[in-house]
Amino acid sequence: MQAPTDFSLELDSPYSLSKDAVAFYRENGYVKLKNVLSPAVIHHYGPIISDLVIQLNTLTKPMHERTTYERAFLQIMNLWTRNETAREFVFSKRLAQIAAQLMGVEGVRLYHDQALYKEPSGGITPWHADQFYWPLATPNTVTVWIPLQETPMHMGPLAFAEKSQHVAIGRDIEISDASEKILSDELQRLNFNVNDTPFDLGEVSFHAGWTFHRAGPNTSDSPRRVMTMIYMDKDQTIMEPRNSYQRNDWATWLTNWPVGSKPEGPLNPVIWEK
């Protein structure tokens, strides 16, 4: 059995999460936390994740020929199944425990991981809510967004519409030019505050599945490299898919595990529990 490294030990050690951070997340649908990962950990795992993105990427069309979604980022999923070091990162108990504490649940499963690399000249990520795509019965879901470099405004950091997880608007809209226009207008009309700020190295965010979020374009000359993991309550329930995207997710990430049951298939291990 491989001995743990200093990097993996950090990934699995607890993070001191304040009561204020938990309260902020539950009120606003997201929270940004500084110094969650050390520069050493990011510099160790980041290049490995980037190499996998290069190896596995199949989107090679010129930027001007891509759709809005394709211009937003290169999207590579379930890296943990392709590389043992990536698996070590994805299975971080520190990050999973934070997710469980924010949701107030006894443990979390992995839904899936995904690398989101916004290339130089990459476009906006339109307003959307992730859970539109997921055939999951409860809102106990959360995504951790981990920049693998400092992310100033010109690289397109993630932005959040505070408290938007509580409203029903836009829950039937896929990510698109239409979602950007409709949700931008509606969120502005309803006076939602938008947190659109840079990320320091080691700073990560957690956002709820129904929290609306977006990102600006990457106008720098370097890729905006981000790794994400989507967690769900370990006692989450699979629901009957409501759209074609949820049917695809049910087959792809939940291995068609029975509707009405917990998602206990091979791709959805429990990462942390009390």
Automatic annotation (TrEMBL):
User: InterPro entries recorded for this chain?
Assistant: Phytyl_CoA_dOase-like (IPR008775)
Which UniProt keywords are present, listed alphabetically?
Answer: Dioxygenase, Oxidoreductase
Residues spanning the signal sequence = none
Segments passing through the bilayer: none
List the Pfam families hit by this protein, alphabetically. Answer: PhyH (PF05721)
The answer to whether UniProt assigns keyword Nucleotidyltransferase to this entry is: no
GO MF annotations for this entry?
2-oxoglutarate-dependent dioxygenase activity; iron ion binding
Q: Which PANTHER family match?
A: PHYTANOYL-COA DIOXYGENASE, PHYTANOYL-COA DIOXYGENASE DOMAIN CONTAINING 1
Q: Quote the protein name from its UniProt record.
A: Phytanoyl-CoA dioxygenase family protein
Which organism is this protein's natural source? Fibrella rubiginis
